Amino acid sequence: MSDTDQMRPRGGRLPRKARRAQLLDSALEVFVAQGYHSAAMDDIAERAGVSKPVLYQHFPGKLDLYLALLEQSSDRIIDATKVALASTTDNKLRVIATMQVFYDYVANAQGAFRLVFESDLTNEPAVRAQVDRVTSVCADEITHVISEDTGLSPEASRLLAVSLVGMAQVSARYWLAEGGEIDQSDAAQLVAGLAWRGISRFPRADEQA
């Protein structure tokens, strides 16, 4: 399929919310393919099948558009992590579910993870803040579980939580970069097993009496 075939057809007017979602989808394709610095608002407008004035009605500039997309992408992995942690009270299954969140995220065909974990604009404070938010908020959620279950100090619990988040996102990106030769589910369970062997060494608070 040619690039022209992939452009969005110009059509009728959409409700503002639907138009914004369409523009973000188109921007994601362009930013993932070209990176922030090489992408142009012209490219995004053409991909979306709208005029540049329509694009600027929703996003005043390229950085505003990128930040909106980055926030959306960050929210998705944060929300998915919260759901995974709340899905069970079995901590072994929690580790597996959380690890799968990161593997699902990097395996998504749209490549949104590249905006969060491989941004070429991390020298921009607003971008850095969004990227750091993923690690920070995901670690916050895991910290609560570790602290409540083990009785470890907040500082120790957070260090373990940040380590688990780092293991998840780095291993998932490595798995994808290597061509995903191991089945996604198998890869996530393999790394979850490693994480569980470590974290399970800290007994639950109600077992320490």
Produce a short descriptive summary.
With 209 residues, this protein is an all-alpha fold. It contains 10 helices and no strands. The relative contact order is 0.10.
Any overview of this molecule?
- The protein has 209 residues and is mainly α.
- The protein has two domains: 7-11 and 13-60, Arc Repressor Mutant, subunit A, CATH 1.10.10; 70-202, Tetracycline Repressor, domain 2 (Orthogonal Bundle).
- Helices cover 74% and strands 0% of the residues.
- Helix 5 (62-86) packs antiparallel against helix 6 and helix 8 (125-150) packs across helix 9.
CATH superfamily of the largest domain: Tetracycline Repressor, domain 2
Beta-strand percent range: under 5%
Number of E-type strands: 0
Distance between the termini: 65 Å
How many structurally independent domains?
Answer: 2
- Taken in chain order, the helices and strands follow as HHHHHHHHHH
Counting helices, strands and paired strands, the structural category is mainly alpha
List the uncertain runs. 1-11
Q: What would you say the CATH architecture of the largest domain is? A: Orthogonal Bundle
Key phrases:
209 residues, Arc Repressor Mutant, subunit A, 0% strand, disordered N terminus, Tetracycline Repressor, domain 2, 2 domains
